[in-house]
Amino acid sequence: MNGRWRPLGAVVFVLPAAFFAAELALRAHALPYWLWFNLDPSYLYLLDGMQLLEGVTPGNVNHPGTPVQCIVALVVWLSGLGSPSGISDATFAAAESLLRSASTIILALDAAALVLLGWVAERRFGMIPALLAQTTPFLTMLTLKHGIEVEPEPMLLLGVLLLGTAVIEYASRPRLWLIVAMGVVIGLGSASKITFAPLGLAPLLLIAGWRARAFFVAASALSFAIFLLPAIGGAAQAATWFADLAIGSGTYGGGRPIVVDPERYPHAVVKLFFARPLFLAPFFVAAAVLAWRRLRGLRASGYARALFAILMAQLVQILLVAKHPSGHYILPALELGGTAMVLLWPVADELAQGAQARAVAQFGFVAALVVIIVAQALAFYRQDRELSREAAGALSIDLARDLPSCAHVYYDMASSPSQAWLYNLNFGSHPFRVRLAGLIPADDYSYLSWVGRLQDRSGFVEPASVAARYSCIALRGTSLAPLTALGASFGPLFDRAATCRAGSEFILVAGASCPGAAGS
User: Residue 3: pLDDT above 50?
Assistant: First the structure.
């Protein structure tokens, strides 16, 4: 099948352009970044990048996330709003613009890597494998949904695309520089989010010889260290966090120190592994083809070895994430499905005997491509409509605009520019707290469930003192029960509070009515 399906080279730009356009469309309909479903962690990474410019260790090193922080720092520096000598107050006012610029840079890198992956696959195998490779960001809508944020996930996509490219090239023709390239990519991905690290198993299984493998491990470790250098001051904190994650059997390192919970872990593995058909079907088809190939006694080829390596890396990444299960944590494993489908092409070709068998195999790949494109086009439409509805709903009520005489209290992730700052200032010790105090309205308050105290721009305050100062108070959050419990802390004022809805958010108003027709 290698000599067929070769189109004009311009075809490899089609899906990358579609990816970039789709992300910009989703982002346009989902912004601003201070909406409740965006503010964590985009504003956190903005603060971290600003801290890097001031020579301060970022407040959040738990991902670690350093490459994302560096891109944000670069954007702030290039904007003229910040320099290594300090951050100007105008930086805070330009937050949304800076985040969009950082997001655009990351998405552009992803699109360029997608072109590279398609070009390598087309050069080696032809058009259909190239297009299958470029379905990588479309295999799950989680990729596109998280791609609009300034967070590690779009950087992990970059790592998956570059790793897939290097694996395909190495399987075709092993070279030393490709070992180095794979090591650099593993270091980059792991520095973006440690859950990327299991993908390093793919090069380890693909590379032949212990010396070459040791060279890869050294390149990965050096790359990881270099990408972490800007946040070296948080190395001890990150190491402690990762140790807790490894030993703890519960979510985020909690639970008993027995690594995995035998009662919860198997269910989590099954749930993560079987949740997405577009991952599951290619995985089992590839596994079946490799098994069939082995039963027939065919000699191991570079492509078969590479395909096996990818499948094992996907499996191990899911096994790691199952310790603290969340769908977007397994994005690297899901996205590797594009590379797996490319490698399946030559492996299936080795098994196909005769023109008819090859035609059937080609039809299967074409059918898979059509299914992915159609299914994910529909999924994209639904996701775009959902984000548009969520954004419109959140923006339908603005507490500062609609209830100007009230105290505005935001609970955890609640839509407000003030909450975007106050929420994320609680990660680490920030040098910007004093300057932000002059920019956050005096009527805005924040309550974070893990802090357990009400605070304003200057620090902690007592609910009773707030109730004494205002004739009306509005509480906003994404769940009604904790808002009701918080309202009780203000005294009898909330005994007859009005309940409002702003999309998925709840608003309790005491001393005033709901804006417009949003109440009940």
Answer: no
